Amino acid sequence: MRLRALAYVSALTAGDYMLWNWSVGGAHDIVALASGLTLLPLAAVCFGLLVLACLQMLARSARRSTTMTRAVRTPRETRAAERPPQVPTSKSSSERLAA
Description:
Blueprint: H1 3-25, H2 29-72, H3 75-82, H4 93-98
Helix pairs in contact: 1-2
């Protein structure tokens, strides 16, 4: 989801609210009815987009924190974790070549 969509819907909702408030105060019944009918769905969509944006930011910060913890490990710990354990051999490489 883009934050631009949230900004557009928020601006549209605020404009609709101001139009509704002005028309109710000025006794413009038809304009008040039209803007009042669109105000509730716009407010619901705006609230939903705001919740989605917050959840997306939380998920992004959680992903960053897990990658940051992986990056904090030292290179020695990383190499030891990636390498399988070595099994000691009975003969050294020079003894194997001599045989």
